[in-house]
Amino acid sequence: MKKNLLGKMVITGIISAAMLASTAASTWAADKSDKDVLRVGMECAYAPFNWTQDTDTTPDGSKAEPIYGSDYYTYGYDVAVAQKLAEQLGMKLEIHKVEWSSIGISMDAGDYDCIIAGMGKTAEREKSYAFTEPYYYRDNCIVVKAGGKYDDVKGLSDLAGTGCKVTTQLGTGWVPLLDQIDGAEQSGNYETTSECFMAISNGVADVCVVDVPTAESAALTNKDLKIINLDEKDTFKNDDEMVNVCIATRKDDTELRDKLQGAMDDIGWNDKEKMDELMDTVLTQQPAAN
Fold first, then answer.
1. Can you list the positions of beta strands (E) in 98-161?
2. Cα separation, 60 vs 259, whole angstroms
3. Which of 33, 113, 139, 245 has the most CB atoms less than 10 A away?
4. What is the 3-state secondary structure (H, E, C) of 35-95?
5. Could you say which residues form the signal peptide (predicted)?
6. Yes or no: is domain 140-240 CATH 1.10.10.10?
7. Cβ atoms of residues 135 and 246 within 8 Å
8. How big, in percent rounded to 5, are the helix, strand and coil portions of the chain?
9. pLDDT tens series, the chain, 290 aa
């Protein structure tokens, strides 16, 4: 009886050890696998930085990336930069589509590990995330209805006291800029820039504050829109935070932030001329629907 009991204990011990070894191996493999994948969150709805399309190629033959968990693909400036960094790091790229309003929450929850989504580095965001240096520099502008009441505006002072209805995208650094338009009426902000531009087209809003590339992207397919680059002496103050577009990681994940920064340095992605050249290229690649 004792012999049988001892035998069972030995066998059980062997099985337990094997299970532990198997679990440890699986955990190690998962950890290794995770480290081999660059998991990126973006809207896939913010052309020309990122958009959704049906096919895996663009007009110039560039490769669009599959959107994780869907049958669709994504491309744009953010995707092209993510591809460059993943290649430099020897990692597989995995792109997750997420609403802008929850893009930080979903990263903190572990759905992906970094945000490459046209995000401006602001003092407020730096409290929650770790940021690389800029991977793009952009200028701000306003968008009005072509041929409309504000078609000939040159500077902010031209809008003062007009009671114009203003809008922008929710949760962005442009929201505080709306208050700099003296006497403007807040018409409500939107989840996406596409909705902002639609509000301009249908007269729900008169002025949209946004960045130049996004405005240029929209104007390619929406002839109702007119882009106004405000006079540099009569423009927004303290809008520098929205100019620097950076990659964000979780606040405590400085290891990944530094890896991404190292890859940016290695490929020379601190050259504004390179950045502008890529942006000019992707502007010509987006589907008409975007």
1. 114-115, 129-137, 140-145
2. 30
3. 245
4. HCEEEEEECCCECCCEEEECCCECCCCCECEEECCCCCEEECHHHHHHHHHHHHHCCEEEE
5. 1-29
6. no
7. yes
8. 40, 25, 40
9. 444 544 444 444 444 444 434 443 343 334 444 679 999 999 999 999 999 999 999 999 999 999 999 999 999 999 999 999 999 999 999 999 999 999 999 999 999 999 999 999 988 999 999 999 999 999 999 999 999 999 999 999 999 999 999 999 999 989 999 999 999 999 999 999 999 999 999 999 999 999 999 999 999 999 999 999 999 999 999 777 778 999 999 999 999 999 999 999 999 999 999 999 999 999 999 987 66
Find out whether 287 and 220 touch, Cβ atoms under 8 Å. Answer: no
Q: Of 193, 188, 81, 103, which is closest to residue 140 (Cα–Cα)?
A: 193
Pick from 9, 59, 34: which is nearest to 114 by CA?
A: 34
Relative orientation angle of helices 77-89 and 254-266, to the nearest 10 degrees: 90
What is the domain partition of the chain in residue ranges? 36-138+243-283, 140-240
Beta-carbon-side half-sphere exposure of residue 27 (alpha carbons within 13 Å): 6
Helix (H) or strand (E) holding 166: strand 165-167
Tokens for 265, please give them: 């340095």
Q: Can you tell me which residue has the tokens 């049988």?
A: 4
Q: Kindly state the tokens that stand for 250.
A: 């979780």
